[in-house]
Amino acid sequence: MAFRRRAKSHPLFSQEFLIHNHADIGFCLVLGVFIALMFEVTAKTAFLFILPQYNVSVPTADGELIQYHYGLKDLVTILFYIFIAIILHAVVQEYALDKINRRLHLSKVKHSKFNESGQLVAFHLTSVMWCLYVVVTEGYISNPRSLWENYPHVYLPFQVKYFYLCQLAYWLHALPELYFQKVRKEEIPRQLRCIALYLVHIAGAYLLNLTRLGLILLLLQYLAEFFFHMARLVYFTDENNEKLFNVWAVVFVVTRLFTLTLYILVIGFGLPRVENQALDPERGNFFSFLFNNILFRMSVLLLVCLFQASVMWRFIHFQLRRWREYWNEQSSRKRAAAAASSKQQAKPLKRDSGYHENGVVKAENGTSPRTKKLKSP
């Protein structure tokens, strides 16, 4: 008991120590893995953390090609990149967002939202550029039929597998960051739902061998999210500037239409026509085997349509609320301006004594008022 009391009071076990030094702890662990690469005894173990595992040689017309598939050792690699994500999160926060926050003097609520949007802008911009490079170099955009041809896509190129491992690591690192960043209790359920949705979709595409479709969908999703969080950052710096929200609205609607079209094209028409759909667990075609059943295929499409409809409903509700606030603000400004002008008109006008005749002020006895002579200095 005495040891427990001493341990709890020790700074290494305190909450403040973990919050302010979690990035330093992660940096030390990452540095230890890189140091392990220098020694032959530990180098093999260190490679488990840094590089994707389960590489195989696939024969092609031009020779052998090194590709990868998934397995339990991927969890070790994901753990390593979780610490990398924590370090990068702290770097962006300390060297970019904190400096901007000191200049803006935001409230606590806006400060929290500004930090969230700032982190996600950096992540979404990096992911969009990376994902676009992958889909272009792999030919998924120039040849849309490759999204379902030769399914299941059990073997992945290095850059595709590495991209998925890093994506899973980022969204898993967001869970402890809720604690480290002292996120308000009201915001935690919303952020947990967002993290869970990303993890389910990314892990589902990775484990069900739908990585090609998942890449295109992530590209569309991250593009819309980038414009949204960028619009929030601009709004926090200048509350009268809402032009980027209009750009985000257009991009969001376009990406939703493309997303729904891709789902229908790949799941409704592409995968059911794949050859060799007999159940073979070694080839990982369980998902393709299920598409022989039209009931399963229609159920998946129905779930996708319902999910996209719920997303569009939240978007429409957000836009209606935003427009309502805008028009209420405009009407209140007009009422204030009208009240100010009516007050000015209600003020009594001062009149000169006497009356006017031919533009000349006359005294009450009919004579013109005498001009007052100015004394010479």
Descriptive account of the structure:
The structure is a single chain. The chain is mainly alpha-helical and 377 residues long. Helix content is 68%, strand content 5%. It has 11 helices and 4 strands. The chain has helices spanning 2-9, 15-36, 40-50, 74-104, 108-137, 158-180, 188-207, 211-237, 243-270, 286-290, 294-346, and strands spanning 55-60, 63-68, 355-357, 360-362. The strands form 2 sheets. It has a two-stranded antiparallel sheet with strand order 1-2. It has a two-stranded antiparallel ribbon with strand order 3-4. α6 runs antiparallel to α7 (188-207), α8 packs antiparallel against α9 and α9 packs antiparallel against α11. The longest helix is centred in the C-terminal third of the chain and has 53 residues, at 294-346. It is flat.
Element layout with pairings:
Elements: H1 2-9, H2 15-36, H3 40-50, E1 55-60, E2 63-68, H4 74-104, H5 108-137, H6 158-180, H7 188-207, H8 211-237, H9 243-270, H10 286-290, H11 294-346, E3 355-357, E4 360-362
Antiparallel strand pairs: 1-2, 3-4
Q: Please give the largest β-sheet.
A: 2 strands, antiparallel
Percent helix, as a range, is: 55-70%
Radius of gyration: 33 Å
User: What is the first-to-last residue Cα distance?
Assistant: 99 Å
Strand order of the largest sheet: 1-2
Number of strands: 4
In the predicted model, the low-confidence regions spanning at least 5 consecutive residues are: 1-10
Number of helices: 11
Q: Strand-and-helix sequence, N→C?
A: HHHEEHHHHHHHHEE
Rounded mean pLDDT is 82
Q: How does the helix and strand content classify structurally? A: mainly alpha
Subcellular location: Membrane
GO biological process, one term: SRP-dependent cotranslational protein targeting to membrane, translocation
Organism: Falco tinnunculus (Common kestrel)
Pfam family, one: TRAM_LAG1_CLN8
